[in-house]
Amino acid sequence: MAEQTAMSEPVDQQKAAAPTLLDVRDLHVRYQSGRGEVHAVRGVDLSLASGQTLGLAGESGCGKSTLAMSVLRLLPKSSRVDGQVLLDGEDVRTMSWGRLRAVRWAGASVVFQGAMHALNPVRRIGEQIAEPLRLHGWGGRAPTSLSPAAIRARVAELLEQVELPARRADAYPHELSGGQKQRVMIAMALACQPRLVIADEPTTALDVIVQAQVLELMGRLVAEHDIGLIMISHDLSVLAATCQRIAVMYRGELVEQGPAEQVMRQPRHAHTQALAAAFPVVGDPAHRLVPAAEPATAPTVEPSESSGASTRPVLRAEDLHVRFGGRRGGQTHAVAGVTLEVHPNEIVALVGQSGSGKTTLARTLLGLQQPTSGRVYFDGQPLPTSARGLRDYRRQVQLVLQDPTSALNPRQSVYEAVAEGLRIHRIGDDEAGRVADALSKAELRPPEQFFSVLPHELSGGQRQRVVIAGALALNPRVLIADEPVASLDASVRGEILALFLRLRVELGVAALVITHDLGLAWNIADRVAVMYQGELVEVGPVEDVLLAPQHPYTRSLLAAMPNAPGSLDEVELAAGDAG
Amino acid sequence: MTTTQNPPSTPPRTATALVWARRRAAAARVWRQFATDRGGVAGLVVLGVIVLLAVLAPALTDQTGLDVTRAPGAPWQAPSGEFWLGTDHTGRSVLLLTWWGAQVSLLVGLAATLLSVGIGTVVGVCAAHFGGWVSSVLLRVTDFFLVLPSLVLALVLSTVLPQGLGTIILAIGVTSWPSTARLVRAQTLTVEARPYIERSRALGGGHGHVIGKHVLPAVLPLVFVNTTLTVASAIIAESTLSFLGLGDPTRVSWGSMLHSASLHGAVSKGAWWYLLPPGLGIVVVVLAFTLCGRALETVLNPRLAHSAGER
User: Fold this and answer.
1) Cys-Cys link to B109, which of B167, B235, B270, B280 (CB 3.0-4.6 A)?
2) In this prediction, what percent of chain A has a pLDDT beyond 70?
C-alpha cells in the first residue's frame, strides 16, 4: 500500500530509478511481556532509496523506534518480527550473525537518542570514533590493513565533517556541550561510510539554536554523501526541516505518508493534524491564544487587558541577583538583575535557552532559593523570610514542574498528592470536597474515579493535570510552571496549554510559564520575557516581541525555530532590516 | 498507561480508609512475590517454628532442669532415650539448655538489631536531609564507629559495664549501626533528589513533612531488609561475646553453652553432643534470617528485581 502511495507522489517518481536501499514489507513486531503480547508494529510498508531522507513521526509508544531498530535487528529477545526487512535486497531477519555484524555500522548505522548518555564518559572521543573504524574499516579497506596514523587521519576528517576542530579528538565527553556531543555521535555514525543512517530523536535534549545547527549539519552530510536517512521525531517541524518525505505512525501503523511540505501543510489523517497543530507557528493568527484542543472545549480568549501598568502586579521581582559560588572560587551569576512583573489575570512566558537562569529565577520567586540581592514582592509586600511566613506565601504562589512522572510520589495515590498541600496548611474542613473540586478544575472528571489511582496508572497528560490540581487545591493566585509541556506528547500539549488558558479566564489565575519554545509563548501568553545569560533582554506583549523583535538574541531564537519557511523569511528580513 | 481508560471506580469513604486500602494491597503484593521465593519461605517457616518453641519454652518444659544443683542426670552422658542430646558437665539435659538458649539468643539478636537500625536510620536520614555541618558532624561520627573494630569495642563495653543482657544488647547495638546509617543516607539522598520533594517544598512542606511523608516511606523497606540481615550478625555477635565469657552468667544462651563446653573440656572428652546443638542452632537461625532477608530484598529493592522492576 505504501509503495502505491509512494509511486503516486511526484517527488518519488524521480527517485524511482534509484536502487531501493531499504524495503520494509508488511512488518509486524510483537513483544512478549508480563502483561501479555504487545503488538508494537502492525503491518508497515516502507521503502527508501539511497540519497533519500524520510522522517518518521509519532507519539511515544507508537512503535516508531521499534520500527527503526528492527532494521538492524537491535530489538530485545522478547520480540517477534514477521514480514520482510530488505537492506540492499538482503533480508535482515535471515542474515547470519557474522553478516549482521558486518552490516551493522558499515552498511547502516544509528545516531542514538540522548547523546549525553550514549558516549562512554571515561574514553576520549577520538578513540570512540575510531572504534567502529578498527572493527569494520571503511571505503573497502579491511580493518587489518589500517595503520594508527590512517585511523587518526580518518577521525580528524570525520570531526571536520561535523564541524568540530580535529584537536577535539583528545577531549572527554564531559568537556563537550550537548550539541558537540551530538556532532560526535553523528561522526561515529558516518565513520564507516554507511549507506543508511537512522537518527532516533537526534535533537530532543538540545536547545533551539543548537538544534537548528545539528539539523542543518545532518541535512548537508546526507546530501553530500548520498546517504539514506531515517529520522525519528515527535516534532513534525523538525522533520519538515530536514526530510523530503514524512511518514506518520499511530498505534503501530503508518497512517500517512507523503512529501514533507504536504504532510505539514495539509495533513489528511486526524492524528497528523493533531501533531501538526501541537507545534504552533509563530506569527500565525490561527494559533494565537488557541491551543490545539478539540474546538468544542477550546476557550475563547481575548488578550488580557491588564498587561499594562494599570493594575498592580501580583508578583514582582526587583533587580534580582542570584550568584552561585563554584568549587574553585569561581562564581556563576545565574540571575543578573532581573525586574519582572506578573499582573493578575495574565500569562507571562519566560523564554530562553537552557542555562539562561530561567529555573533559578522561578525558584527564587517561589522562595525556594535565596536571592543574593534584590527583592521579590507579592501583592506589594516583600517576600517573608521566616519559615512560617514562607509557608503562608506558598498558598498563593504554586509550582508546576516539568516532568509530572517524577513530580508525583509513586507511592501516593492521586488523592494524597492533591491533598498534600491542604494537609500542610491544615485546611481540614471538607478535604475530600476540596480535592474533588481541584481535580475537576484540572479537568479530571469525574474526580472520585481518580482518588485511589496511583500515578503510574495514568497517562503523562493526566499526571500533569494531577500536579496542576495539587497546586489549585490551595486556590493560588499565581502558578509558576517550569516547562509544563516539554515532557508530554504532542497531542496532550495542546490540552494542557488550553487548561492554563481556561484557568486564567475562569479563575483569574495568573501564570508565569517557563519555556524554551517560542511557539508555546505565541500560543498562550499575553506577555513574553526573553532571558539571556541571567538577564531579561526583552520584555513586552507577545505580538510586539515575537513579530518585531528588537534584541539580536530574540531574533536568533526566532530564526532557529524549525518552522514553516514563510515565518523564517520574515524573521530574516526583519533581522536584515534592523542590521 | 494501560489502565488509564478505566480507573477503579469504587470511591473510598475517607482519606484514611484510602491509605489503609492501599497499604493492605501493597502488603498483599509483597507477600505474593515473597511467596514465590522458596528459600525465603523455608527460612520463614524455620524461624516461625524456632520462635514459637522459644516463646513456649516455659510452658512446655520444666525450668528446674536448668538448675545445676538439681541436675537430673550424670555428667557427660551420651545421647540416649532419656536425654536425647545427652548431658553436660553438671548432668543437665543439653536439649533443655539448647531450647532455653534459643530465647536469649533471639531476644538479644532482635533487641540489638532494633537499637542498631534505629540509630542508623535516624543518623542516616538526618545526615542526608539537613546537609551542611549537621551532615559533616554525623558522617565523621559514623566513620569513627565504622573504623573501630566492633568486636573489640563490644568487648570493652561489656567489660566496663555491669554484666547482663542489657549490656550485651547495648554493646552490639552501638557497634553495628554505621553500615545502616550509610545505607539509609545514600537512599535518602536519591529520594531527596526527586522533583516530588521540590513540589512538596513548594506546597509549603517543612522538614517534618518531607521526612515523614516522602523520605521515610521510601527508605523504610530498605531498612526492613537491612534489619533481617542485621539480626543474623547480631546473633553471631551475641554468641561471640558469650563464648568469650562476657554474657549474662545467670542465663543460658547458645554462646554461653559453647563457652562452658570448651571451658570444661568437651572437646577432649569427645562430648560432641554438647558442642553441636548450640552451634547448629546458631547456624540454622542465622541462615533462616539471611534467607528471609534476601527474599525480602529482591521483593522490596527494585534494583535487584530486574523483571519485576519499579514501573
Assistant:
1) B235
2) 88
